[in-house]
Amino acid sequence: MIRNLCRVVGLPVASSQQYFVPPVDPKEDGEDCENDCESCVEKLPSRFHVDEKRELYGMVKPWGVHVLVATGKSDWVRKVERESGTLTEALAREDHGGKERLMILASNIEPPEEYYTDSKKPTTVLLLPAFIFVNHVTNSDVPELMRRFIDTSPSVTTPLSSKPALYPSGDLSYRDCPHDYVVLLCSHKHRDARCGISAPLIKRELERHLRPRGLYRDSNDERPGGVGIYYVSHVGGHKFAANVLVYRKKEGQMIWLARIRPEHCEGLVKWTILEGKVVDPDRRLRGGWDRGKGVGSW
Known about the structure:
Mean pLDDT: 92
Number of helices: 8
Strand content: 15-25%
Strand order of the largest sheet: 7-8-6-9-10-11-12
Helix content: 10-25%
Structural class: alpha+beta
Number of strands: 12
């Protein structure tokens, strides 16, 4: 809010020292910490262009909880919340008891087998930053999902020191997400072709840097720790593709980056995912929140 008012009246906005996460520092992190990867395998096509002029930071509309619905797909209809009969539509229509906005997204998380055989299409829902999977959710389960889980889960602004969420008893079961980090990539080609083009390239390049560290986890890998990478539907700001959202569980951080290219992925793994720092935040950092420090971009 304050940043927006400053723009209106012509006052200077926050410098890099005022971002909620620190930028990499050559004095502390090495002279090459800001360099792009020189061995990058994936390349964006020459015709790929995004908005390079508009300011990014602080322009993300505040939200509280990401609700990821498993569909097993990486592309969807233009507006998933309006696709008749789907869980995303049912969630979008349900009254939300919390004060903070929900971001309801379709994802490529693999649903259970019953999703493909049962007419009720029970599927999995991932809640972030709670890092929990709710199992076998159908449209008729939405009121319970809201009451028991979404309305009682921590949001991105809930202090990290708060007591763990206690979920009331009910019919739906849940399990912890085993990953230490979750990365969301907008791959919604039907919304903007640039997202569909960039997301697979970014994912492959992230995998290339995560595998030697033993951190990559595919969709069926339940080993504790590591990094789970999921495609999601439209998050906003497709003109700044690729949008990459990084959740860091233990640190309570959510870092939203944009204008990410394959050559940025080495630094993204080394500094953002593992260290909570950002390379070139003036150009790449859109927003987010640090629950441990109680600071964010809104």
